[in-house]
Automatic annotation (TrEMBL):
Residues 165-224 form the Sigma-54 factor interaction domain. It comes from the Bacteria. This is Magnesium chelatase. Pfam families: Sigma54_activat. One of its GO terms (molecular function) is protein kinase activity. GO terms for biological process: regulation of DNA-templated transcription.
Amino acid sequence: MPEPRTLRELRASGHIHRTVKAEIRENLLARLRAGEPRFPGIVGFDDTVLPHLERALLAGHDLVLLGERGQGKTRLIRTVTGLLDEWTPVVDGCEINDHPYEPSCARCRRLAGEAGEELPVSWRHRDERYGEKLATPDTSVGDLIGDVDPIKIAEGRTLGDPETVHYGLVPRSNRGVFSVNELPDLAERIQVSLLNVLEERDIQVRGYNLRLPLDILLIASANPEDYTNRGRIITPLKDRFGAEIRTHYPLSIETELRLIRQEAALDHVGADLPDHLVEVIARFTRLVRESTAVDARSGVSARFSIAAAETAAASAVRRAALTGEEHAVTRVADLPDIVHTLRGKVEFEVSEEGRETEVLAHLLRRAVAETFRGTLGGVDLAPLLERFSEGVQVESGALVPAGELLRRIGPVPGLAKIMSRLGIGDESPGHAAAALEFALEGLYLLRRLSKDEVDGATVYRT
């Protein structure tokens, strides 16, 4: 934290006052020139969304991010605060973070007149300069802008005293970034209160003769469906935003894989999720998004694939706890559980009512088959098939431990090659069982083996 603690010391330090948008612009340009990450943690937007966002920020525009649910709009908005200066000076105790050089609220102007160059200064970190409000039908103008504080009046101040105002979320985010999530859900009469914030850069509170210039970057998010049907952004407010930027779901399977690996809390769950199963979940998510049985207007959130990965890993942890396995490794047998768990995350077409589980199970099988063809399609699995030509039947399931599954399959020549093609370097029983079970499921889906499912158990046979 910088050392100046009074206005005199701040001037002596050579500090230069910049607006929020100037801070962001100059810091963004510095990172662009240095080739440094501008929006850490954001996956899949490098060549599409981020260039538009960077242009809007360089132009000093307030903006709207428009996209379906689960596309990372809020996550992206929050990373913008990383472009602010790490520390900024404020008048000590100010509710709206006035800069010591230009105090604007009644309290700070009075204090500046009394203290002069000894005006006390404190410092705020960039993480404290972000405000956010989820637009809900019960949001009021007082929540966003401010209202009269009856407690201050009860303390003896007169009703016309500007210091009796209780500031709302927007002025309390002065000299920072403020986000309104799902802006169309905000009642139209409440949206009107933001008109002055975006154009005249000030606020009005009830009947007070109050002009409070705000230094703020306003970013809103909206869902296209809400944007046109359930709610709307009023025309004067849309006109005041400088940019409207469309977001999207991951465009490639590689991006989907990166997103799952980055966001899924697998370390917290406590199970290993092999790469081939991450790919199955990624393909499954994309198939659900593309399915004609699913309402495309609603979208399929990135949280769908993240929750699927965590649920599959949790199934492996449960098996290890019940059977005494030393290490929990996720297998194909753990995937069917995600269908029932995630059904509520998907909006289906009315014509598919009653078939939701069947549709998802079918798409999951397709995802497994596509992943199998892409990973083990060129591998010689004849030694594994020969085990079944001898009349062997292999029973598996979510509660069959890895060691028992390997015992039932028996020695398989070429297992090391199968594991290598799947990117499995660990030769533990859990990983070997995961590789072999995936191979069995792939052979079944390609109709090289048969499979019976009885009472939660799966039996592979010729």
